[in-house]
Amino acid sequence: MMKLTVLCDNNSIIDNYYLAEPALSFLVEDGKEVILFDTGYSDVFVRNAEKMGIDLNKLTKIVFSHGHNDHTKGVENLLNLKQEIEVIAHPNVDKEKFYQGLDISMPIKLKDFPSNFKITTTEQPLKISENIWFLGEIKRTVQKIKPLENDYLYDDSALMYITDNKISIITGCSHSGICNIIEQAKKISKIDKIDVIIGGFHMLNDPKLNNEVCDYLSFENINVIYPCHCTDLKAKIELSKVCDIREVGVGMVIEF
Q: Is residue 175 left, alpha or beta, with left meaning phi > 0 and alpha meaning psi from -120 to 50?
């Protein structure tokens, strides 16, 4: 069984009184592996973890979905940890990135991490726990409409969890296209049944993208989708017409 805890998202769940910010961080536990998937923008995920009673000194791995600072900047708050931690990402994760003239890059180069952080970069799929795979560089073969018009984020990736001949997908922003991510997960696993998808779909004020993704998902028979972070209200409404959509917020826990 895998357990996912939302440490950071744009939203927090009512009556839990955790902090939220426009960023993302999930704690994923699978057997002996305690994996931090993205680190948000600030120390919000650390403060929330402390309030939840989660000990980040037990982290074994950090996975970056891509190199934007709303998914990586918070790592500055972890560099004082003393345990051995493996950092897994695409090789381009720490390359410079700009948006509308603003530097939105990862705040620290991988080569400058402390020596107890073991750096693993790969464009290829990589098994990182008993049941979890890092999908590597996503092949852009299916989805025609890009979440970003000038799409250069080839470091965008996701995680896949396999159990009972079903796959679940954990994504950060889906800059590579959620349909492409799903197809890559199916190809690697050789499994067509998708149980759960959680994460950001980068469906923002784009009706054409909404239509393409919903048309694709209408044939997938997915159990539950948890769209969050960079998925706007209109996109969620459209997704709800073809899938069972659930709300996401800081403090939410899902067991797969």
A: alpha
- Closest to 225 in 3D by CA, of 239, 215, 212: 239
Q: Say how far apart CA 59 and CA 83 lie, in whole Å.
A: 8
Helices 178-189/207-217 angle, 10° precision: 30
How do residues 101-136 score in pLDDT, each as one tens digit?
A: 899 999 999 999 999 999 999 999 999 999 999 999
* DSSP codes joined into one string, the chain: -EEEEEEE-S-B-TTT-----SS-EEEEEETTEEEEE---SSSHHHHHHHHHT--GGG--EEE-S-S-HHHHGGGGGGTT--S-EEEEE-TTTTS--EETTEE---SS-GGGS-TTEEEEE-SS-EE-SSSEEE--SPP--S--S-SSSS---TT--EEEEEETTEEEEEES--TT-HHHHHHHHHHHHT---EEEEEEE--B-S-HHHHHHHHHHHTTT--SEEEEESSB-HHHHHHHHTTS-B----BT-EEE-
Q: Rounded mean pLDDT of the chain?
A: 97
Indicate whether 26 pLDDT > 80.
yes
What is the per-residue pLDDT across 29-38, written as a single tens digit (0 to 9) for each?
999 999 999 9
